[in-house]
Design goal:
Blueprint lengths: L1 H17 L9 H12 L4 H31 L18
């Protein structure tokens, strides 16, 4: 069953990667405005690119901060002694 799940996940991931198409991620109005501005020597394109990079970076920064907080909160302390029995645990 575990092998089937792994195969299924790999198959879905492969199909998603193989079926991707090149898309234009801007509406026609935005694309036309940015292209005409770039041709006329404007610097609006730099602002648009910076905005895209800003929006791209925010989820990664949020995940990194969450990971850092989780690491600091739940990492194992060095001088804590665990008092565990040496017996095997039988769950049946």
């Amino acid at each position: 069953m575990k092998a089937f799940k792994l195969f299924f996940v790999a198959m879905v991931a492969g199909l998603i990667l193989l079926s991707s198409d090149v898309v234009m991620a801007q509406c026609a109005m935005c694309s036309a405005t940015v292209e005409s501005n770039a041709q006329n020597g404007g610097n609006e394109t730099a602002g648009l690119n910076n905005g895209i990079l800003y929006l791209l970076a925010m989820p990664y920064i949020a995940a990194a901060i969450g990971g850092y907080v989780w690491y600091k909160k739940y990492r194992r302390k060095e001088n804590v002694e665990l008092n565990m029995r040496n017996e095997k645990l039988h769950l049946n």
